[in-house]
Amino acid sequence: MAALRRRLAAAEGDCASVSLAVEGQEGTITFTTTDGRVARRIVRGSQELQPTVEALLVNPPPPLPAAAAPGPAPERAAPPTPPTDDRRPSEVHFHVAAIGGVRLGLPGAYGAPTVGLRPSGTFGGWELGAAVEYDPTHVYLPGGLPSGVTLWSFAAGVQLGRRESLGAFGLGYGAGVGVAAIREEAPDASGAAKVADFGQPRVSAYGRVVVPRESRWRGTLDLGVDGGLGSVKRRATEAANLPDLPRWGLGLGLGVEASLL
Q1: Are the C-beta atoms of residues 93 and 122 closer than 8 Å to each other?
Q2: Options 2.40.160.20, 2.130.10.10, 2.30.30.100, 1.10.3720.10; which CATH number does 92-259 get?
Q3: What pLDDT band is residue 4 in, cutting at 50, 70 and 90?
Q4: pTM of the predicted model, to two decimals?
Q5: How far is CA 195 from CA 67, 87, 113, 233, in A?
Q6: Contact 226, 203 (CB under 8 A)
């Protein structure tokens, strides 16, 4: 607004006044000329404000009909404009985020580094997306895994939630469903490799913050919690000091999100 006021103060031409009315996430610009012509434009976001006013300074509303020029006249409706001028910006946007972080599995206290991708689409205030996560290794935190034992997992799911605006920040929250594939490898009593594969349906909830909200590239902080719909008790290893594989999980991730549309 400060930059726009300076621009209007230096403007030449027939601009009499420019006013802005904000309602929700949209604003209405009313542009009035010195001879009483009026035009209105809808903007969504501060980044559209100055380009819209610049366009009106270059292309003001068309002149009033000659019959209406002499003497005072009743207030007239805004002259018709091409449909493309007043169309609202699309409320459909697509994003993709790359995330890295850590996961804690409970009970049993298994920790794991994580990497993942999160493509999503926003439709007004609603967000529909997918999430994939790869945990290349899990570690039993109290004492580590026995020699020769490896454990990794891959999870995928769909998420539905809301995305709200908090000034420069975007706040997202929602829930999802998915499935995790878990593999454990361990030597048996004879030393031969033994493999156990598991599938675990999961439900989840998430919260995230993105900043700056209106930038094409944004930083993101993700916090998630999930629960398996069934515990995994079968093991590849017979080590007595290892608990069952975790049923609940907490995840924390940092990453970058880009808007594709």
Answers
A1: yes
A2: 2.40.160.20
A3: confident
A4: 0.62
A5: 90, 59, 22, 14
A6: yes
* Residue 69, Ramachandran bin (φ over 0: left; ψ between -120 and 50: alpha; else beta): alpha
Q: Which of 33-37, 39-43, 229-233 has the lowest mean pLDDT?
A: 229-233
Segments of 38-168 assigned E as strands? 38-43, 92-106, 110-123, 126-135, 139-140, 150-166
Nearest to 113 by CA among 252, 257, 237: 252
In angstroms, how far is CA 146 from the centroid of its own chain?
A: 40
Say if CB 75 and CB 215 are below 8 A apart. Answer: no
Instruction: Give the full edge-to-edge strand order of the sheet including 26-33.
Output: 15-23, 26-33, 38-43
Q: Alpha-carbon distance 261 to 258, whole Å?
A: 9
